[in-house]
Specification:
Elements: E1 20-30, E2 34-44, E3 48-53, H1 59-67, E4 74-79, E5 82-83, H2 89-96, E6 99-102, H3 114-118, H4 120-126, H5 131-143, H6 159-171, E7 177-181, H7 189-206, E8 209-213, H8 217-225, E9 226-229, E10 234-237, E11 248-254, E12 257-262, H9 264-269, H10 273-279
Parallel strand pairs: 3-8, 3-11, 6-7, 7-8
Antiparallel strand pairs: 1-2, 1-4, 4-5, 9-10, 11-12
Length: about 280
């Protein structure tokens, strides 16, 4: 892989509200061997953090810790002002209503239509699809440009379409935080770019705070060098000469520790030998 050119950084027209959504303080967890060793970081409101690192470094584990699906052995995790390490399961259910998750490989229910998949969390509350839920499903599908698939089943969709439906399911509750677990894994480059455009659109239009796990450097740098232009209704390079803060930073894990946290430009200037090899 050739070295990527530095992105041009420019600012959002409006800044996201201040404050933090997620805070890890000295978090440790081990299974047979240590996986995370005293890691600390913050996810601010309106910010996207891209989690990079070799397989097995704990990237997806961080998403599970945010959701409270797994408890750390030590340290503190605060999500939307709540310390999830101390919360009861019943209270975690309430917290998770404010978090959207895009699972690797989409994780759609094969026996349900697209509408039923997208509305799943809302149906849990009402037991059926109401007129209001139907309208919200169409709104979410319109966002990912799949309104016409509402009555189809997952088997009738392409891999990229299933991933877009998964994004619609994650955003239908208008969550404060979105978690993406390798949203472009297994997709071809063109389809991957479509998915990344939707992630960028969510970031720039709704300023949703996000943690995104990826193994594709190209996707990461696309997010760090593009913004969603509402007038053109598409993702465009940040090359207009203005200073644009895309509210997107990188976090690289290695051997249970965070070895880098910063912007794309800072990452490309980093002289650490491991990081230089990782980017090359």
């Amino acid at each position: 892989m050739s070295t990527l050119a530095p992105p041009v950084e420019q600012p959002q027209p409006s800044a996201p509200p201040p404050g933090e959504c997620v805070c890890f303080k000295n978090v440790e967890i081990a299974f047979d061997n240590p996986v995370l060793e005293g890691i600390s970081f913050q996810l601010l409101r309106g910010e996207t953090k891209i989690l990079l690192g070799a397989a097995g470094t704990g990237k997806t584990l961080i998403l599970k810790l945010v959701l409270g699906l797994i408890k750390p052995d030590a340290g503190q995790i605060t999500v939307l002002g709540e310390e999830v390490t101390q919360m009861r399961e019943q209270d975690l259910f309430e917290l998770r209503r404010n978090i959207g998750m895009v699972f690797q490989e989409s994780a759609l229910f094969d026996s349900m239509t697209v509408e039923e998949n997208v509305a799943y969390r809302l149906i849990e509350e009402t037991g059926r699809i109401t007129d209001e839920i139907h309208s919200r499903v169409l709104e979410a599908l319109r966002f990912v440009e799949l309104e016409h698939t509402v009555n189809l089943f997952p088997a009738e969709l392409s891999g990229g379409m299933r991933r877009r439906v998964a994004i619609a399911r994650a955003i239908i509750t208008h969550p404060e935080i979105l978690l993406y677990d390798s949203p472009t894994g297994g997709l071809d480059p063109v389809t991957s770019n479509t998915i990344i455009e939707l992630v960028v659109k969510q970031r720039d239009v709704y300023q949703t705070s996000s943690l995104l796990v990826t193994h594709r450097l190209q996707d990461a740098f696309t997010m760090a060098s593009h913004y969603f232009d509402r007038q053109q209704n598409k993702m465009v390079p940040a090359t207009d000469g203005n200073v644009r803060d895309l509210h997107t930073k990188f976090l690289i894990l290695r051997d249970g520790k965070i070895i880098f946290e910063g912007t794309a430009a800072e990452l490309l200037r980093c002289t650490d030998p491991y990081i230089r090899e990782y980017l090359s």
